[in-house]
Amino acid sequence: MDNKLDDGNLYVGNAKGIATSTLKTAVPLSGFGAAAKDVEMGGFKLTGLSDPGLAQDAATKAYVDSKTSKTPQQPTVPTTAVAGDTYYNTTDQHLYVYNGTEWIPMDNKLDDGNLYVGNAKGIATSTLKTAVPLSGFGAAVKDVEMGGFKLTGLSDPGLAQDAATKAYVDSKTVKTPQQPTAPTTAVAGDTYYNTTDQHLYVYNGTEWIPMDNKLDEGNLYVGNAKGIATSTLKTAVPLSGFAAAVKDVEMGGFKITNLADPQNESDAVNKKALDAGLAAASAAAKDNLGNHTAVENIKLGAYAISADGGAGKGLTVEADGSVIFAQSATIRQNFYTPSDRRLKDHIETLSSTLQKIDQIRGVRFEYKDQTKYATGPKIGVIAQELQKVYPEMVTQGKDGFLKVDYTQLTGILIQAIKEQQVEIEELKMRMNKQQEQIDQILKKLK
C-alpha cells in the first residue's frame, strides 16, 4: 500500500485489478487516448513506423522517397510521359508540362517583343508582335496616345465616326473663291469672299447671303420676310415687338417723348395725364399718396397702414423698426433672406438634429384670442419646447409672449434628412450583409 516503485517503472493494472510495478519498455504506446495537444519529440525519431494507409497517417521515409522525384533536366523531351509530367529543357531554358498530347511551356520566358497569344488548341503561344492584328481588340476606354507617330495604310472612312485619311480630307476641302463679283455657277452651300465689299457670302440655292460680322456703324441685323439677316438702320427698327424687360431700363437722363395717354393701370403716364390727375385730386380736397414721390423717409409713429384705417389692422412699424402684420400677408413674388457665404462667420454644421427634433412636437392648435391672432386651426410648434433645443429661433415680443422664426426650420430639416439618410444607408449595409449570411447558410443547407 505504500508508494515504493522501481526506478523507471510504472504502476499498471493487471487482470486481477491490482496495480503492478511494470517496466516502461513493457507498456505498449497503443491503447492510450487521443493526444490533447502537440507531442514534443525532443529532437528524437519515431522508428519502426509502418507505411501509411490513411490520409492522416504519419508518413515513413520510404513512402516519401517513393512519391518524390526530381524534374528531368535535358535538351530534348522525355520519350515516355503521362499527363501532368514536367521536364526542364536545358536548350531553350523553358519548363514544360505534358497535357496528354503535347509538351506546353509553363514559365514566363518570352522572346523580346513577342506576345503570348492563345492558339486554336487553347494554348498560349509565343507570337511576334507584328503577327498580332490590331483588329479584334475591345473598344478603347480612354484616348490612345500615338506618341507623335502616324496611322498608315488607313482605309478611307465609310461611317461618320471612322478616322479620316489625308486623301479623304483633301477631297473634301477647297479654297473659298476670292473675287469682286459672285460666281456665275453655284449650288446651295457654296461660299465666296467678295473683295469689293469685303464680305463672306454663302449661296442658299436662290441668292448669295452675307455671313460674316461686318455691319455699317449704327445698323442692326434684322430678319426679313425671307428669313435672311438684313443690315437695317437703327431708326427703322420699331421699339414695339420686343420682349418684356427683365430689369429696370436706364434712360440716361433722357425723356420718353410723344407718349400716348394711359389706358391701363400699368401704362406709363405722360405729363398731360399726370397734371390732370393732380388737378382732380386737389379739386376734391384729397391727397392721394400714390401721386407723390417721397422726399424723405415716411414716419408712421404709432399708426398703421390698412384698407379701412381701422385700429389694430394692416401694417404697423415698431419703434425699433420691426414690422407687424395684423392680418394674413400674401407674397406674390419671392421672399428672400440674405444667405451669402461672404456675409457669414462662425459657420457650424448642425449635429444631432434628429435627436433634437425628437424633443419638439409638431402640433395642431387654435389661438385663444382669435380677434388679435389668426382664426381657425393652425399647425406649428410650441415656442417653449423649441427654445430648449434651438433658442436662437425663439424671441420674446414686447407683449411678453414668445415668437418663433419658422424660416430657420428649413436648415434643421435639411440636416435631419441627411442624418436620417446616413442611418438608412447603414441599415441597408447591415441588411445586405445579413442577407449574404442567410444566402450562405441556405446554400450550405442545400
From TrEMBL:
Tell me which UniProt keywords the record has, alphabetically. Answer: Coiled coil
InterPro entries referenced in this protein's UniProt entry, alphabetically: S74_ICA
Q: Which residue intervals define the domain Peptidase S74 in the entry?
A: 339-431
Which spans of this chain does the record mark as coiled coil?
414-444
- One matching Pfam family is Peptidase_S74
- Write the protein's name: Peptidase S74 domain-containing protein
Q: Which organism is it from?
A: Pedobacter gandavensis
The lineage, from the top, is:
Bacteria, Pseudomonadati, Bacteroidota, Sphingobacteriia, Sphingobacteriales
